[in-house]
Amino acid sequence: MLNPVGLSAFFDPAGLLVAQTKEQTESLAVTEEALRDGSVPLVVTELTRPLDLREGRRLQLAAKAGNTTGLCLIPDGMGSNAAETRWHCSPVFDVGDSTLMHWEIIKNKTGTLRAWHVRWNAETRRLDVVSPVGERPGSARTSA
């Protein structure tokens, strides 16, 4: 279960609404309504089975109507053909930085496919794009 206190470094947990449903159909209905309402900038849903084209398209239309971003957390291989983009995120081992991650856009209907290393900046409360290890200032490859 999501821990609102664990998210406090990223945003005020008082602005978080957590909805738990018995099945995915109910989760999709709640997600669609939240997206269409537009009162929150981001709606996150965890899925347990693949979305069909109709379900995915309904979420897209609701997000557009509410001018809201929707993020579906899905296990590998359970994507929807209706998705505008699909991302793969994985941690990057770094002794001095536990927030370093590799984000790769693996599907993009309107642009290119790319990958980035990102880290959370607690001071600015934003993600910073950083160079891969061998290309960072002070690394063996750049100082030679």
Structural commentary:
The protein is α+β, with helices and mostly antiparallel strands. Helix content is 22%, strand content 26%. The strands form 2 sheets. A 4-stranded antiparallel sheet has the order 3-4-5-6, with no helix packed on it. It has a two-stranded parallel ribbon with strand order 1-2. A hairpin with a 4-residue loop joins strand 5 and strand 6 (126-130). Helix 1 packs parallel to helix 2. It starts with 23 loop residues before the first helix and ends with a helix.
Largest beta sheet: strand ordering: 3-4-5-6
Query: Which bin fits the share of residues in helices?
Result: 10-25%
Structural class: alpha+beta
Classify the beta-strand content into a percent band: 25-35%
Q: How far is it from the N-terminal to the C-terminal residue, by CA?
A: 47 Å
Summarize the structure.
With 144 residues, this protein is of the alpha+beta class. It has helices at 24-37, 53-66, 140-143, and strands spanning 42-46, 69-73, 85-91, 101-108, 115-121, 126-130.
SSE arrangement:
Blueprint: H1 24-37, E1 42-46, H2 53-66, E2 69-73, E3 85-91, E4 101-108, E5 115-121, E6 126-130, H3 140-143
Parallel strand pairs: 1-2
Antiparallel strand pairs: 3-4, 4-5, 5-6
Helix pairs in contact: 1-2
Supply database-style keywords.
alpha+beta, Rossmann fold, 2 domains, 4-stranded antiparallel beta sheet, two-stranded parallel sheet, globular, disordered C terminus
